[in-house]
Amino acid sequence: MTDTTTSGPMLSADGVPLKKSLARALRRQKLRALILIAPLLAFVVLTFVVPIGSMLFRSVENQIVSGTLPKTIEALETWEGEDGTLPDQEVFQALFFDMFRAAEAKEHTKLGSRLNYERTGFSSVFRTTGRSLDDIGEPFQDWLEDADPAFADGLTWYEMLSGTGGEDLIEDRRAIWANMVGEGFAGDIGFTLSGEMAELLPQTAAAYSDWAIYTAIVDGDVVAEEDPWETVYAALALDFARDGAVSALVAYSGAGAAPIANALAALPSLPEIDFRAAFVAENEGWGDTGNWQTLKIYSPDYTTGYFLNAIDMKKGLDGAMARPENQQIYVKLFIRTMIMSLIITGSCILLGYPVAWLLANLPVRSANVLMILVLLPFWTSLLVRTSAWKVLLQQQGVINNILVWLGFVDDTNRLILMNNSTGTIIAMTHILLPFMILPLYSVMKTIPPSYLRAAKSLGATNWTAFWRVYFPQSIPGIGAGSILVFILAIGYYITPEIVGGTDGVFISNRIAHHISSSLNWGLAAALGSILLVLVLALYWLYDRIVGIDNVKLGG
Amino acid sequence: MFDTAKDAFVAFEHVQKSYDGETLVVKDLNLQIGQGEFLTMLGPSGSGKTTCLMMLAGFETATHGEILLQGRPINNIPPHKRGIGMVFQNYALFPHMSVAENLAFPLEVRGMGKSEREAKIKRALDMVQMGDFGGRRPAQLSGGQQQRIALARALVFEPELVLMDEPLGALDKQLREHMQFEITNLAHQLGITTVYVTHDQTEALTMSDRVAVFDDGRIQQLDPPDVLYEQPQNSFVAQFIGENNTLTGVVTQISGERCLVKLDSGDEIDARPVNVSKVGDRTTVSIRPERVEMDKRRLSPDAHTLKGEVLEFIYMGDIFRTRLRVAGSDDFIIKTRNAPDQQRLTPGTQIEIGWLPDDCRALDA
Ligand SMILES: Nc1ncnc2c1ncn2[C@@H]1O[C@H](COP(=O)(O)OP(=O)(O)OP(=O)(O)O)[C@@H](O)[C@H]1O
Ligand SMILES: [Mg+2]
Questions:
Q1: Ligand 1 and B176: CB distance under 6 A
Q2: B23 within ligand 1 shell (Cβ under 6 A)
Q3: Tens digits of residue pLDDT in A91-140
Q4: H helices of A119-256, where?
Q5: In angstroms, rounded to a whole number, what is the distance separating the alpha carbons of residues A387 and A375?
Q6: Which CATH architecture has domain B5-235?
Q7: Long-range Cβ pairs for the range A150-154 (8 Å, 24+)
Q8: H-type helices in B138-258, by residue range?
Q9: Considering the domain A332-550, what is its CATH architecture?
Q10: Which of A447, A452, A500, B256 is geometrically suited to a Cys-Cys bond with A504, CB 3.0 to 4.6 A?
Q11: Model confidence over B19-66: pLDDT tens digits?
Q12: B198 CB less than 6 Å from ligand 1?
């Protein structure tokens, strides 16, 4: 016999501490289990975790505003916007360059649609302005080309701005493009900016760099051979108008000094620089402080705006506030979805319980036939079943006809069973019924008939025996069925869409609308996230009240 | 035992039962059970015991015939009004109720007040020595404990008749023996009438006042245990109850309590005619292994004896079990007591055996 009374940890046969060898054995087991479930795990992550994650992200993401109009947003920071004044000229100047860039890349309409969710009419402001940006820059181009025809030649600009030392600015502009379009703007553009020019003519250098990057990378042209955008001319005019710019430029003697000198000489005839007036002239929307407020409110990269929208609120300059009464739809819709799902779950319990009881207690042969009847709906397409309900529920439909024929309903007073919540409840109860019956059945199947007999032998009437003995044991089945039906119902889409009309639609129909029609994916994501949270909260509540171990799908 | 069925506490009168309309599961059952009696239904699987019990409890209806309880026909009384206590094979304790709630159930449905209820529950739990277990769930009890609770629940509303369907089937041997003792004690103490179903013959013999041996939907014999064992009325009962040696042959002589049987091997033996009536009847004679005699001095001088060859000797502690070849049969068993002077036979030995004619019963073929 070995001495087991010595102190120290228990050792296994090979002298390794018992705990350690147990842990090793368990680890191997776990690893094997992990390998077995790896495909499923990957599948679940790909098809479930990733989409939900991206949905949650999309519901707060708002980078499109600052990505498309980066400098405008920067300039807007100092604008309070409360006293009804428009932003100052600097903002409109930045808007001109940002918009031009966005219009070239066709990004401005996307931003327009995005902002249109928050303020109707915004998208047309963006669309029309995008077409006429050239007009705003043209006076400056004309002026410069009059002052020195060399400005009409792209090479003049190229030589004037080429050099070294301006790499940082080029990289900044690349980043702006990449932010807006969302893809890489890396690579040689066949142009290097002069550092001296970047200091002397900062706006011009920036505008020219924007153009050069776009021309080289998106259009694939040679920068030296192309004529720049109107923005570059406007930028030069702005640079000239800067305090102290003229004196610095007079001393300049590098490439392009001659055209610059000619332009300086023509300064007295420089058209008035008033971008604000130009923008307002192009589209009155730019003269509306409400539009500017919206732009400012939705300028951060992440916003609670979609969520506020989803609960019938909106962002104001100073925090959240309720939407006007006539625009409040979502909270009502959420409540309606919940109530109708509850009613559907309740009807499923009422209708499904007796069927499940029959299934569990009939002789095998008849039970099998009944089971086939229960499963039959699964063999027909959901769309067909729902459409069949349409046929049944119409005012001239089968049900109404029978009721009229039987004399229960007056012919002029046919029941409205469709295109309202009644229709949705009837059709969805039918469609979700199997999801209640099956768990109920599998739980009832495990309740031996001897319990009922025992109860009766103890003196209970049929009803008491059922209510006190059978029913409590079938509650786990009711729980499982209810969770299943409720969660399916709360996210249902097709059936309410077809038979629900306007009164019988669910929140999912709104979500689908925003995904496929209004394309407001952020709001759809926010609504979806709220739905998800609601379901989880209810699940938690259910666990607290009923206990989740009280849910059985069988056994 | 009873003059008419009306005198009996429970009576089955020409009861028949068929589930499918094609075969009779119970064929013409006639049975009278006295007040306070402990009656056991014993029989092989499928012989209709549970069916009889269910008819009595009201969960199955008799296809034909009448069942009387205290002289009144009960065919039309629903189960919950019969007031019969019942213990099920799997106990059927309600899993969602505590032990005390289980016991309270029959009292609540009878509308009994709370204090009275509690007193009765306590008394019933104490009766089965489970006084401390009122708060537990059935799932938290061992098999034997569940058994006791089921018993207590069947007795708590003080029925006069209790039915038990193989209540000890799921217990191990030791616990079963203990519970057999407790159940009979309780039944006698409380003076209740008990109908007990089992297919364990030891259980039937040790517990019952009378045993009804079922086979093929009929009662084959209804007698107190000792009579059943010592005087089986037919070869089924003889085979079913206890161990038995059987030899087949033809009756050659018959006179009152004695007959002579010529075995198929040609040997002749004495027997007591039970199920044979005339010379020439084929018969199965049955001899209990412990009644076989190897000591010629104990037999009468003119007794017929048979030659046997020892095939196997098994030491079983309290007894010896010897297997012989006798009259062409290879499994003739002798049981002898492990006494100091008892001979231990070795295989191959030739011996002579005999028996008192009264112990050798000539039954139906
Ligand atoms: N509900 C039923 N439907 C049809 N046949 C049944 C039903 N219950 C029992 N039977 C048949 O009736 C016969 C007697 O059954 P019963 O349950 O009474 O036997 P038992 O003596 O209790 O047997 P065991 O010792 O195995 O419990 C069997 O052949 C059985 O197959
Ligand atoms: Mg049985």
A1: no
A2: no
A3: 999 999 999 999 988 889 999 988 988 888 889 999 998 888 888 888 88
A4: 122-131, 133-147, 154-161, 167-181, 195-200, 202-213, 230-241, 245-250
A5: 19
A6: 3-Layer(aba) Sandwich (3.40)
A7: A150/A256, A150/A258, A150/A259, A150/A262, A151/A233, A151/A259, A151/A263, A152/A227, A153/A227, A154/A224, A154/A225, A154/A226, A154/A227, A154/A228
A8: 143-156, 173-190, 201-207, 225-230, 235-240
A9: Orthogonal Bundle (1.10)
A10: A500
A11: 988 999 999 899 999 999 999 999 998 899 999 999 999 999 999 999
A12: no
Distance from CA of A476 to the nearest CA of B (A): 11
Q: Which of A144-153, A183-192, B44-53, B91-100 has the lowest mean pLDDT?
A: A183-192
Instruction: For residue B19, give the ligand nearest its CA.
Output: 1
Length of chain B equals 365
Give the residue ranges of chain B where pLDDT is below 50.
none
Site to probe by mutation for ligand 1, drawn from B49, B166, B199 as the one with most ligand atoms within 8 Å of Cβ, is B49
Q: State yes or no: ipTM above 0.90.
A: no
- Residue A420 pLDDT > 60: yes
| pLDDT over threshold 70, residue A505 | yes
CA of B19, closest atom in ligand 1: 4
Encoded tokens for A171: 């990289």
Token pair, residue A166, equals 């301006």
Distances in Å between the Cα of B206 and the Cα atoms of B209, B222, B230 are 9, 15, 14
- Confidence class for position A253, pLDDT limits 50, 70, 90: confident
Alpha helices in chain B (DSSP H): 49-57, 99-108, 114-127, 143-156, 173-190, 201-207, 225-230, 235-240
Angstrom distance (rounded) from CA A509 to CA A497: 7
Which CATH architecture describes the domain B243-364?
Answer: Beta Barrel (2.40)
Domain boundaries, chain A: 21-57, 68-288, 332-550
Of A553, A417, A541, A430, the C-alpha closest to A484 is A553
Residue of the nearest CA to atom 4 in ligand 1?
A: B19
Give distance in angstroms: CA of B50 to centre of ligand 1.
7
Q: Which amino acid is at B245?
A: N
Nearest-Cα residue of chain B relative to residue A473: B96
Describe the crossing of helices A122-131 and A89-104 by its angle, rounded to 10 degrees: 80
Is the distance from the beta carbon of residue B43 to the nearest atom of ligand 1 less than 6 Å?
Answer: yes
Name the token pair of B22.
């094609």
Which residues, listed in sequence order, are joined to residue A313 by a DSSP beta bridge? A322
